[in-house]
Specification:
By secondary structure, the chain is α/β, with parallel strands linked by helices. The protein is built from ten helices and seven strands. Helix 1 packs across helix 2 (34-42). The N and C termini lie far apart (43 Å).
Length: 286
């Protein structure tokens, strides 16, 4: 059996996104890092140009996706979900914030071993780890063993619904590669009465403004991160059909623009470039 793919090259983005969240006030101060502050400052000129020329920048899309995932997670918890697994958690503050707000919640944060150790130590130093809020290593391409998806989900109560989250992960892989994980996830979620998967995705809709610019930027980011950045899907229906083919029963696609004025998210000029995909397996909530 071949070795699981190594995705450690993209972990530098965790520092930048972590700093964006602390600067926006949605993360605890102890998530701030020197590396994140450096990257934030280094990218400031490019972010300025993006905001004034394109009508939005990386920070805008990071905040749009984070607030929208939070919004749906709040709703799902209010509907009875008590188990959450966040994959590629990086320096996301979500686990910390949600466990503070919902004492009934079991929240497992996961990432590649080095990042998981870093996150675990950070949370441990500030006394916020517990049996219901913990950090574990994972490799989404591991077929078995302690790094596998099945091992992580196997620690949960399979008589209760679960939510799995990936944020800032899927577009670092070509569609055919990330689909292997999606197919595995859909199968694993069938063990629960209801499984919900929330992820951000940057589609490349035909006719979208800055279509060519996005492709160029994707190539540049892929070079920097030594990854194969991909923009998946050219239409919502293409995404729906694809997720159905992988074993998910339903897929709802959320556009941040539909939540302007309802959530504290920044607006872009024109159609936002990020979408939140909500895929489900199992019975539909009444």
């Amino acid at each position: 059996m071949s070795e699981p793919r190594d995705t450690s090259s993209i972990s530098f983005t965790a520092l930048y996104t972590g700093h964006v969240w602390t600067r926006d006030g949605i993360s605890a101060p102890f998530f701030r890092t020197r590396g994140g502050a450096f990257l934030y400052g280094a990218l400031a000129p490019f972010e300025y140009v993006g905001r004034h020329v394109v009508g939005g920048n990386i920070r805008t899309f990071l905040l749009q996706r984070h607030h929208l995932i939070d919004h749906r997670l709040h709703q799902l918890i209010n509907d009875g979900v008590t188990q959450v697994v966040e994959i590629a958690c990086g320096l996301s503050p979500r686990g910390h914030r949600f466990c503070q707000q919902y004492p009934q919640l079991t929240y497992i944060e996961t990432d590649l071993p080095d990042m998981a150790r870093r996150k675990q130590q950070l949370l441990k130093e500030h006394g916020v780890l517990s049996e219901r809020h913990r950090v574990q290593p994972i490799n989404i391409f591991a077929e078995d063993g302690e790094l596998s998806l099945d091992h992580v989900l196997g620690q949960l109560d399979q008589n209760k619904p679960v939510v799995v989250i990936t944020e800032g992960l899927v577009n670092y892989f070509p569609l055919e590669v990330i689909s292997d994980f999606w197919r595995k996830l859909a199968s694993a979620l069938t063990a629960f009465p209801r499984g919900t998967y929330l992820t951000d995705n940057y589609p490349l809709y035909k006719g979208m403004p800055f279509y060519r610019t996005l492709k160029v930027l994707g190539g540049m980011l892929g070079t920097v991160s030594r990854s194969q950045v991909g923009f998946h899907f050219h239409s919502d229906m293409e995404a729906v059909d694809h997720f159905h083919s992988l074993g998910f029963h339903n897929l709802t696609i959320h556009n941040p623009a539909d939540y302007y004025g309802k959530l504290p998210i920044p607006k872009t000029r024109g159609n936002p470039m990020v979408r939140i995909m909500e895929a489900t397996v199992g019975a539909v909530n009444s």
